[in-house]
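Late entry, evening session. Most of the bench is empty. Finally got around to the prediction I had been postponing all week. Sequence below, unchanged from the version circulated by S.P.
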Amino acid sequence: MNKQEQRSELQERIAAELREKALRTNMPENTELENVENLAYMKGTQQTTSHGWAWIVLIIVAAGVFISFLVQGL
């Protein structure tokens, strides 16, 4: 019975420490960039769609075509 009581006391102490740590991490001074969506400079913007990779490929291809025109001109 003593080991079970010690274990439950240990579990309670660990749970209390975890609750305290969770409260410390949720304090306002630690939430500088957590709610980025609410910031004024983010208004009117949207997250990248699933086609974001296509834009990157398109830009790379366009840069390659531009560079090839420059090389052919020399």
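Two things to note before I forget:
Residues 2-25 form the longest helix (24 residues).
Helices lie at 2-25, 52-73.
Will write this up properly tomorrow.
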